[in-house]
Amino acid sequence: MRKFYGLVLITVLAGCASTTPTAQCDVTIRAPLEGAMLMVEDRLTNGCAYSFDAYMAQLIEVARDNPAAGNKRAFSELLVRISDQAVISKRQASEFYNRYFNIKFASLSGDYNTCSQVCPVRSKVISQMRDELRDKEVGLLEITGDQGSYYRADHLLQESELVLEATCRACDGDAG
Amino acid sequence: MKIYLLCITVGLLLTMNIHASEGPVMHLFPTTVLEDIRETGKVAEEMENNLQDIISRLDLQQELYHGSRCAGADEDPGCQRIARQIGATYLEMLTVMTERLPQMEQAVDNTRAGLKKRLRSELGEKTTPGGLQDVLLGRQTGPADEATLALRGRSGIRLSDRFKQYYGLVASRQGGASSSLAVIASDIYLDMEQASYLIAATREEISRATLMEQLNQSFGLITPEMAQVVEGVKSILFGEQGDAPIASAPPENTGLTYVSPLEY
Lengths: 176, 264
Hints:
heterodimer; A: mainly alpha; 9 helices; B: mainly alpha; about 0% strand
């Protein structure tokens, strides 16, 4: 009887081991990008949602090696699909997409006015925008080959620095 | 005369009321601020005109001093005479600056205060960070205006010309895209803050420099400090080459039209 229970326990443990999420989610992502995206989508919707960051980093690498104007749309559509399936939130999808593929900066956003939202943390925001520009270099320039948009983003950062410096000084102290 | 022609041109442009806006329209340059900028340019021009002759004379006297190998020859009576003449011209320059700087300070302060109020209200209080990006991008599809972008590297021109440039840029864009106006307003405001600080520091220094030079007059000495002050005044008023613009114009938009539903 004791032998039987031991056997059952070993069988159960072995079963668990063969379906651990680590093994199931640990996949190698290779070109072509479309296929890689389908695989990622499948994994994400089948218990590997926590691997989102790792998968996206690998997809970015695959796309960097295979630049094309259509990559931007492919990332957008993947993000929309997985957010529709509640793997990630809409906000997460939007932040990821905009960080890499939009001229505008996700780091410079918010619902309150500039004086109250940005000025108290201006240098931190500028530093985050600089980091984000590096991701835009990857997304816009390396993955999509869209030089014009990348230079507009670069220019927007420089103008934002100037305008925020002036505006925040104006917000500071009395109106005179 | 040039100023009057400029006023007439600007007046005409303003009455034409050009509406070519693509970005959100902001009221960064009401008539009062425009008037302050024009006034500051006028005061700067008067100051330059008063100082230009004196500074040219100083340059000639210094050439003569060095050409005559007077450096180190303090005992030579001829060199002492030239040194005293330089000192007297230097004092003349300080006197003109003493007379003109308060007016300049007032004009700069008025421009600075006017712009501060507008920047705070239009960009600081009425705009969100995302809105600010929209203002700067102006939702434009073409290349940005080079004249605007080169503003931050503004040295190399006379102070009064700088204000004429500011005035021209602002006046010709009234009712136009706010993106460039936001940058121009910020640029002028930061420039005025710096000018205000420099004028205050210069006014403090002038009385000390005047006293020192009055003492030096009895000995006929040329001090390195004199040369430095003159160089400083020249660079502020008449410009100095060297500063690079903050940004160059971006290349033309490549025309890729895909817009993601995820985009801000």
